[in-house]
Design a protein that fits this description.
This protein is 76% helix and 0% strand. It has helices spanning 7-30, 36-41, 45-62, 64-73, 84-91, 99-102, 105-115, 117-153, 157-194, 199-206.
Length: 217
């Protein structure tokens, strides 16, 4: 039996989940719920690694919806410079009303994947890293809060304040870079779809007209 994890799973779920695991472990140690020796001796090293990796992956899935808060709270996605459809329409005025610009990104990415899997993999990589950074923003903010509490209540004030400053800067940078990478992914999707022969006509034919009654399911 073999187990493989894709680039999307690794970046979008496993890596952000590992930061949540680190935070939970730190809190458990600070609250004296466990010790480093207990963790090290609780199970064989190989099994411990598997447990941590599995917990990271599961927590990444469970906490995915929390990352959506970043999109709702920060107004960066409303910037026209980060709106791939508007940027593409400015670059290609003749395509402003094309079916490609009116289609969902999921459908367009499927068209790219059918045409060229290597290009689709690059688009997926950009999107996965962007989502990873977005999902990392929340645990980094939590790390900032924990560091501030540690500075107020603990005995290592300088170290805690340093960690708080680094965590806050990292969260800010991750949020901004997340929007940028996802914008690149969407823009690249539109650019590649523009060069797929007959794709615009295919999408146009599949779009409902004013005379077409809505489908029933």
């Amino acid at each position: 039996m073999t187990f493989t994890i894709g680039i999307f799973d690794l970046f979008t779920y496993a890596i952000p989940g590992s930061l949540y695991v680190a935070l939970v472990t730190y809190m458990s140690l600070r609250l004296q719920l466990t010790t480093v020796d207990e963790l090290a001796s609780s199970m064989p090293t190989a099994l411990l690694i598997i447990v941590v990796a599995t917990a990271s992956y599961v927590l990444g899935h469970v906490s995915y919806s929390v990352g959506l808060v970043v999109d709702k709270v920060l107004p960066l996605w409303r910037r026209e410079s980060l709106n791939a459809r508007k940027v593409f329409a400015v670059r290609m005025p003749g395509c402003a009303n094309s079916a490609i610009l009116r289609s969902g990104y999921g459908l367009l990415r499927a068209a790219v994947e059918m045409r060229d899997r290597e290009v689709a993999a690059e688009i997926t990589r950009l999107r996965a890293v962007g989502l990873m950074l977005r999902n990392l923003t929340v645990p980094l903010v939590l790390a900032f809060v924990l560091a501030v509490v540690e500075a107020a209540l603990g005995g290592h004030r300088v170290e805690a304040l340093t960690v708080a400053a680094v965590a806050l800067l990292a969260a800010s940078g991750a949020a901004w870079r997340s929007f940028t990478l996802r914008h690149w992914s969407d823009l690249k999707t539109l650019e590649v779809c523009f060069w797929i022969p007959d794709l615009n006509q295919t999408l146009e034919a599949g779009m409902p007209t004013d005379e077409t009654p809505p489908p029933r399911y």
